[in-house]
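Practice record 12: protein with manganese (II) ion.
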Amino acid sequence: KELADEFTHALDRDELVAFFQPQFDANTLDIAGVETLARWDHPKKGLLAPNRFLDVAEKLGRTGDMDRLILQKALFELTRWDSLGMQIPRVSVNISARRLAQANLLAELSELPIAKGRLCFELLETISFNDLQPVLKEIIPAVKKLGIEIEIDDFGTEHASIVSLLRFEPRRLKIDREIIKPIIASPSQRRLVSSIIEIGRSQNIDIVAEGVETMEHAKILKDLGCHILQGYALARPMTSEQLIEFCCIKD
Ligand code: G
Ligand code: G
Ligand code: MN
Ligand code: NA
């Protein structure tokens, strides 16, 4: 309740911060992109993770405004990384259903300087069945026409059918960490991941694994043919400054 009052101020006072988690090519371990993750730098409570404020934002109807702000910050940093000569192929942002439904979304996006393939929207599986028909039919194709890639996030955890998801013709599917975690101990779980990769291959869709918490996970996923890896074993979410440092050390 209290947080709800404060969140409105947080947006006005620019207390939301963008963190970035690198994603890696499974074969070369080069950076393939970074995912932008919102944090709230609360004046008293310190840095809050999205699970502390996403519900609040949604109840206030401000998730779309939050996503717009985080996108601005992500593109600002991408320009900075480019100017520093860093090799960050693309930046991903998480996009809520509310943001996709904003009437001025396409007009706003077309004003932004977005080179083809450098920006990716991560959409939760749930958008394919939560009464957003216009999104399915019109908005997503229009977003793609602007050169923005679409990735399905948390794949395998919700109840969306594969058919409904493939209608988006996403560039990538991101397998949820709850599916990735057990692959070391469980051959059956490895086969499941392998099947998802096979579906991707049949549709020309790259597969991202999240929750890569050990190098053993990374090795198995690479051997299974997974394309992109994201997780604590490789890099944690970090500030833009930390990312700049991270890339300097890596080169
Ligand atoms: O960073 P963390 O793992 O705590 O994030 C948890 C979840 O919060 C992410 O999986 C993502 O779906 C969601 N999230 C993070 N940043 C944003 C954002 O800027 N907008 C929206 N809509 N969701 C976000
Ligand atoms: O799907 P979503 O957008 O929530 O995925 C990103 C979230 O996953 C971020 O909140 C990030 O903090 C978290 N995350 C990233 N890497 C790992 C990991 O290796 N293990 C776990 N448990 N969470 C991770
Ligand atoms: Mn995500
Ligand atoms: Na996810």
